[in-house]
Amino acid sequence: MTTTAHRQPWELREEGDKIVVELRGDLDEAGARELERALAEQLRDHAPGSRVVLFDLNQLRRCNVEAREVLARIQRSLGGVARRSAWITKRPIFRGLALWICHHAPDSNARSFPSEADAERWLGSNEAREAVLERDASSWIGRVRGRLFLATEAAQ
Fold it and tell me: How confident is the model at residue 77, as a pLDDT?
């Protein structure tokens, strides 16, 4: 099912077990509330945990404060319905928004990504968010220790 209108700042479509939400243009509170209703309707007939949701923010131009609050509310509601959700954007301002939404909602299965490929890997995984973050942090710590070791060796 596809729900679109030329005046709407979003498009909602199903791709298998994935629901893709593409945000574009200027998103205000009214547009975000319409999205909230449409997404709830889309998920209503599916068993909890049977769908993943991908939010694509790459075509978004503006998002007012009221719309941000609605997006956070949408993410909180997905915590009990969707298996996972991913927010993607390459643009720093909207990457910050996506991070805020994911952390504002107490949902360990919501994450922000710079690319669709990274998001797709996350959505297809069963690994908990905390495990992924812990593994990534360990990797970075290992890299830093390696560089410190090389710097110490070079100084001697």
Answer: 94
Let me know whether 57 and 109 are in one domain: yes
Query: Mean of the pLDDT values across residues 132-154?
Result: 68
Instruction: Report d(CA 154, CA 52) in Å as an integer.
Output: 49
Per-residue pLDDT, 10: 96
Which pLDDT does position 127 carry in this prediction? Answer: 65
The one-letter amino acid at 115 = S
Question: Residue 50 has what DSSP assignment?
Answer: S
- Count of domains observed in the chain: 2
CB 56 within 8 A of CB 21: yes
Residues 120, 123, 128, 134, Cα dihedral to 10°: 20
The answer to whether 31 and 10 have CB atoms below 8 angstroms apart is yes
Domain shared by 148 and 93, yes or no: no
Tell me the CB-side half-sphere exposure of residue 150, using CA atoms within 13 A: 6
The answer on 144 and 109 residing in a single domain is: no
